[in-house]
TrEMBL record:
It comes from Candidatus Kentrum sp. TC. The lineage of its organism: Bacteria, Pseudomonadati, Pseudomonadota, Gammaproteobacteria, Candidatus Kentrum. Its EC number is 2.7.6.3. It comes from the Bacteria. The keyword Transit peptide does not apply. One of its GO terms (molecular function) is kinase activity. Pathway: Cofactor biosynthesis; tetrahydrofolate biosynthesis; 2-amino-4-hydroxy-6-hydroxymethyl-7,8-dihydropteridine diphosphate from 7,8-dihydroneopterin triphosphate: step 4/4. InterPro entries: Hppk, Hppk_sf. Keywords: ATP-binding, Folate biosynthesis, Kinase, Nucleotide-binding, Transferase. This is 2-amino-4-hydroxy-6-hydroxymethyldihydropteridine diphosphokinase. It holds the Pfam family HPPK.
Amino acid sequence: MARAYISIGSNIDRERNIRLAMGRLRAEYAPLIVSSVYESDAVGFQGGAFLNLVVGFDSLDSPEAVIRTLRAIEDQCNRTRGEERYSSRTLDLDLLLYDDREIKGNGIEIPRDEILHHAFVLGPLAEIAGERRHPIDGRAFARLWAEFDKTGREIRIVPFDWPPDDGPTP
C-alpha cells in the first residue's frame, strides 16, 4: 500500500467544487488525512482567489490509476482541458507524492515541482506531512516550509463549512 498526497485547488465556485471533490475522494480512498483550507491569491494571472488544501491517503492503486481517478473527478466538476497553465479553475487535482517514488515521463511528474515553489502547495503539505521527507531534496516538509520565502506568497487558513467527516484531520 502506498501513501499518496494530492493538492486540491479551485477559484470558480470554490466551496461547491471542493466539497464535491472531497466526497468523491472519500468514496475512493477513505480514510483521508486532510489539511486546513487555505486561501491564496491567483499566481501568474489575474483572477479570483483560490482555495487550496492537501489530502493524503493510502492506496493500492498505481500512480497512473490515481491520476485517472483525479482527472475523472475534475471532469465531473466541468474542468476545461487545454487551458493556459495559469488560469482560473473549477477544480485542479494533482498527485504530489506517491510514497517516496520518483517518476518522470508520460505526462507524470512525481514529486511535483510545485511542492518546492508554491506556498499554497507546500504549506498544507507541511501541515499534514511535516516529518515526511521530499524524495529528491531530502529535507522534511516542515523544514522546507520553515525555510520557504513567503514574501508575496501569503496563504491564509480560512474557515470552511465541511459536511460531517470531511474536515481537517486533527
